[in-house]
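Q: Structure tokens for this one, please.
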Amino acid sequence: MATGSQFHKLATAAKTVETTGVQHDLDTDNKKSMAATVTQRHSPLTDSFGRHHTYLRISLTERCNLRCDYCMPAEGVPLQPKSQLLTTEEVLRLARIFVEQGVRKIRLTGGEPTVRRDIVEVVGQLKALPQLEHVGITTNGLVLTRLLLPLQRAGLDSLNISLDTLRKDRFEKITRRKGWERVIAGIDLAIQLGYRPKVNCVLMRNFNEDEICDFVEFTRERPVDVRFIEYMPFSGNKWHTERLISYSETVQIIRERWPEFQALPNGPNDTSKAYAVPGFAGQLGFITSMTEHFCGTCNRLRLTADGNIKVCLFGNKEFSLRDAMRSEDCTEQQLVELIGSAVQRKKRQHAGIGGNRILLHHPHHRQQHLQQLRNCSNLTHINAQGKAQMVDVADKAQSTRIASAEATVQVGERLTTLIAANELAKGDVLSVAQLAGIMGAKQTSQLIPLCHNIALSSVRVQATLLEAEQCVRLVATVRCHGQTGVEMEALTAVTVAALTVYDMCKAVSHDIAINNVRLLSKSGGKRDYQRQ
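A: Here is the predicted structure, written as tokens:
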């Protein structure tokens, strides 16, 4: 074994390597670094603010075997039918796609992920994905003594355990269930198996703030990372904002007992501010999502149990990857584009409300053949017997055809406010309308009797909330390379998108008007058009 002085000599000798060799290595490293930067910049996982998302949290289930009072009401929450949830195969397929696009860490959550019977198999198959570096799990710890060893054998890298009290009676009060001893036993087993578990504790005034120092003491002999999470008020816990205990207040309480309590270095994407008492085996962390957000370095995405991608825990914008994946004509590339579209919608920080909200999407559809001309002059859609007919376009020359159309939906003051804040019960109006418009363009021939199927090369739908005018403006641009124009596809796109806005808003008000459904421009055929 080399001594300290021998290591020093080896290091010194390494520094004397020929300068040209060192320069070559540096140049190679610089080129690799530049290539990685360029790749990240053009990745669908990089948002409009340059944040590259390498961390995916996958909710495996909505079910939980506890009923924590800050998380859900005593009677639980309505569960979706099993058919609406992702299957194991769908979870693994989406995980693979995310990893191929740059995700390097996956954490399995719930609900409570350990209620899944195949949790061990899921971990094992995720660990088999090339390029995936880390698989973790967040659990309430109730069944760790039974499952942790099989999970470790399957390759589990880390675990977070939710525990809000070190007192048995309080545990049963807050969770409305028994099992505190099993959770503590699970933490100790994790340590014995070589893990350094993170213990997540939600601090709540008038409940467990008198245990802050007990949790610090918990780290004296145990190599654990206790993380104090600021209480987040929401409708399920009746918006009890008075229960919030801030990070700065907690640090002050700890320093009254341990004045030497000190901050530790943090990683670039850490959500927790690390601290420790010198000499203690473990450490403390503070997740300050309410008082000091960490949005600027957020690299996290979430996949819900029913297959929605959620770019921010605090937002209700969701994009259904499940529906897209189960669509017969959806390619894997289109799934990647949908993921990229969702990531591009991520705001600079949570709970922020900007002015106009603009959504762009550019999926490419290559599906069916042969097109048609929709030229209404000379009754081209009527045959010699006066019967309706489709125009035969087989002899027409192919060219690039582009058409744009628009529509406006007048929604009024109240709906404008709700759409801007993304607070409508049915979800993100602009996102859903945009997707509906794309789907509408693709279905034009099934909706308009004399329209042919057209192989569309691009559909672009823009949904903009114009707050001053209290309306949503919809613009669709459709492109194909073929023998007929695509103005009907563009008009169908904005019409379906406008109807979708109405459908999502009608529970609040029926005083909604769809106006100005009209063609803006068309080109590539015999009669180009540009609205003045």
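A few notes: The longest strand covers residues 399-410. The CA atoms of residues 412 and 470 lie 5 Å apart.
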